[in-house]
Specification:
Oligomer: single chain
Structural class: alpha/beta
Radius of gyration: 22 Å
Number of strands: 14
Largest sheet: 7 strands, mixed
């Protein structure tokens, strides 16, 4: 008997957010260890639940959700999404240009599958959310990464990005607000990126799943209104802003001149039909989310839990001898960097494992987001602020051990199996 050989495309695919480090964490927990989980943006795990009006909308329509639904999504939900997009100024012909999926994850894969031929290139931010890279590869494309370094506030340089465009480049992906960095793209930058896409006839993909999660004076600018007639696919959903990840309800809206996007829309329709339909009961939450009372601002405003959690990380970095940080302006993450001038020899992958084994803290190294400078760490802002204060203390302690070892100083023993 021969082993079954998986598709060779999988050799270039990784999703470390649920990868080997997480498997090790589960083994430690099975052995009785208690861990701080900072690896994933899952609000319910941290006691942040879907608003009652979403729960009520789903519950009230369970009896209406037992059969297959429309392949594009519940008509009531698509009408609400269409209305929101038009109110923002997006050029969307009608609700048949709205597609609902089992989370944005499914729709990213579907959108790329409808576009790519083997060898086509997709411009992706570096660091990226790894599902974008994986879906590009699995659909025969090639990721081409454009830099969003900390030195530039984790924002891209449009001129440097333009130099990467080739005859095979088909699309430009933006993640705004950004995961993993927390960057929020200013309007002026978005306008330049739209101009670039127009000049090179690129399809714009704008991942806006964190569109309402903003801190202090940050302002979210949707891309579709700026794109106008230019083909643009905007992604959003209820998982983050409305704390309903498990409902698996996301949507994408295709905007632009109908004459330019019509054939692509037909391809998306075909692929939507092939999966029959998305989860029916949870789609009833879409209208409630978009038209019901806003609930995220109470968490992100000064005095709110997410704002306080963010501040705990900012303060921890400010007090650190080893870390620097571009303060996140949006989303649910911080992306600190270990300073090269203080700790020249540093490997974020090895450090993340050491932190898990000896400090009971699970977070992600920057390599999980296709960034290979070896110095960044991503942690979620969802835990209680007091827990993040403790996490930052443990990160500092682990970094101090590294620095002492590098200097030949006998380090203090690691605190293994902390309660």
């Amino acid at each position: 008997m021969h082993d079954l050989i998986p598709s060779p495309r999988l050799t270039a695919v990784r999703y470390d957010i649920r990868g080997p480090l997480v498997q090790r964490a589960r083994a430690l927990e099975a052995a009785g260890r208690s861990l701080y989980h900072l690896n994933i943006g899952n609000p319910a795990r941290f006691g942040l639940h879907a608003p009652p009006h979403l729960v009520a909308a789903v519950t009230a329509h369970l009896a209406d959700s037992e059969g297959y639904g429309h392949e594009l999504g519940l008509e009531d939900a698509r009408a609400a999404i269409f209305a929101q997009q038009r109110a923002r100024g997006a050029r969307v012909a009608d609700s048949s240009y709205v597609f609902i999926g089992n989370g944005v994850s499914e729709l990213i894969d579907l959108a790329l599958r409808a576009l790519l031929a083997p060898g086509d290139e997709v411009l992706l931010p570096c660091p990226d959310y790894p599902l974008w890279s994986a879906s590009t590869v699995l659909n025969g494309g090639r990721p081409a990464y454009y830099a969003c370094p900390a030195a530039q506030g984790h924002l891209p340089d449009p001129d440097a990005l333009a130099a990467q465009i080739t005859p095979r480049t088909r699309a430009l992906v933006l993640i705004n607000p950004n995961n993993p960095t927390g960057a929020v793209y200013p309007r002026e930058l978005l306008v330049r990126l739209v101009e670039l896409a127009a000049r090179h006839r690129l399809l714009l993909f704008s991942d806006e799943i964190y569109d309402g999660i903003l801190y202090d004076d940050a302002r979210f600018e949707p891309l579709a209104p700026l794109a106008g007639d230019l083909p643009c696919v905007s992604f959003a959903g209820i998982s983050k802003v409305h704390r309903a990840c498990g409902y698996r309800v996301g949507w994408m809206t295709l905007s632009g001149s109908p004459a330019r996007v019509g054939t692509y829309r037909e391809a998306l329709h075909l692929l939507s039909a092939l999966r029959v339909c998305a989860n029916q009961p949870a789609q009833w939450a879409a209208r409630a989310a978009l038209e019901g009372p806003p609930t995220i601002a109470a968490l992100t405003a000064p005095g709110g839990r997410l704002h306080a959690a963010r501040q705990a990380v900012i303060d921890g970095v400010a007090a650190s001898a080893f870390l620097s940080l571009v303060a996140p302006a949006g989303a649910l993450y911080a992306f600190p960097r270990v300073r090269a001038d203080v700790l020249p020899a540093f490997d974020a992958d090895a450090f993340a494992l050491d932190l898990l084994e000896h400090e009971d803290v699970l977070l992600m190294p920057g390599s999980a987001f296709n960034l290979h400078d070896g110095r960044h760490l991503r942690l979620t802002l969802l835990p209680e602020p007091a827990d993040l204060v403790e996490v930052m203390r443990r990160i500092e302690r682990a970094l101090r051990r590294r620095a002492d070892a590098a200097a030949g100083i006998n380090p203090a023993p690691a605190a293994t199996a902390i309660a």
